[in-house]
Write a structure and sequence with these properties.
mainly alpha; 477 residues; two-stranded antiparallel sheet
Amino acid sequence: MSTDRYVSPLSERYASKEMQYIFSPDMKFRTWRRLWIALAETEKELGLNITQEQIDELKEHVDDINYDVARERERQVRHDVMSHVYAYGVQCPKAKGIIHLGATSCYVGDNTDIIVMTEALKLVRKKLVNVIAELSEFAALYKAQPTLAFTHFQPAQPTTVGKRATLWTQEFLLDLEDLEYVISTMKLLGSKGTTGTQASFLELFDGDQETIDKIDPMIAEKMGFKECYPVSGQTYSRKVDTRVLNVLAGIAASAHKMSNDIRLLQHLKEVEEPFEKSQIGSSAMAYKRNPMRSERIASLSRYVMVDALNPAITSATQWFERTLDDSANKRLSIPEGFLAVDGILDLCLNVVDGLVVYPKVIEKRLMSELPFMATENIMMDAVKAGGDRQELHERIRELSMEAGRNVKVEGKENNLLELIAADPAFNLTLEELQKTMDPAKYVGRAKEQTDAFLSKVVRPILDSHKDLLGVKAEINV
């Protein structure tokens, strides 16, 4: 590790080696060479004077990139693509005259960007599917565990721990839908020349329009894509980058929401993220167990959501057939968005896999609020016993206010049931009232909704992606 210069924490602390490789120089420049081979093969197949010996020579050196030669050449010519054309030619003397024939820099630059983003999206999909799988297991395990629900972070009608997890899961499923769509629409730029008109190929193929029409589809097939964008300037539309980063921002928003809920639940001591034996929560307060990983999810997620503005602004400010003010921004915003989301999803996998639930704490908090939730049922029972509904409603309101004051002002336990039992208007004993305090009676269809959601919605999606399952995340810090 270098200690005398800035090193990105996205690489050193957060992103996986797999995602780092996708955005590595090796991936980039090997892809450039594969694109040059695809172009040469296509041109040969369409009748240009290119030999199989030249193609074979290019293939022989597709992976052993002579970086030192390319770097030295770039110092002289100040052009990265032509430096690598030169370096490839040094290794392939027979083929050097046909490398990059008819192409412009964006042929390798932009097509590689599309290929790299597509591979990165596939890795994101793999990890996202596994987050959904882990959440579904957690939801199934705790589908019947009653817990106090919150609206406005104020106590509300109970739900179950598992049902709450389905809310997190559903947001990730929406992200998966968006992700699948974007992956399905990714297309290569193809080889369209300096302003997108394919003028150089018109010259190379003596104006043969029918032959020129075959170039892009053949390149796309060789590179594993269905098609190329039908029209372009020099570059593919930067709106593609906007769509990609918006998907990442959506995943970040879902992760942020889940991590916030977990942080709040950890404050309530109801649920905790994993905490290792030797982990230190605070340098000063040795007893603390801070939700560090959930906080990191939130922190990285905010970065990604803001980062999504970069390609949107870049897309909006491209002039005519191209400007170069996109280049430096793309080199930062696209890789960093992916590296951050990769780290986020690894953290989500780690946190969900090790979530600890404390049913006794959950039950205690729920029981302290349940008498308020149960007042409607109590009132109905009292009406059945001969009481007047309107009078009973007013009495319950008054007694609830008194019990609330006892809790908030006096610091006492909730004594609403005792107050109701002592009021002759209700004609109910404390024992009868306590029988109504089964939390399961107040969670509505939370368990049934969870079962239906997992079996009818989540399971078919996981079955259709079963080849992606089984990922276990390792986090660096």
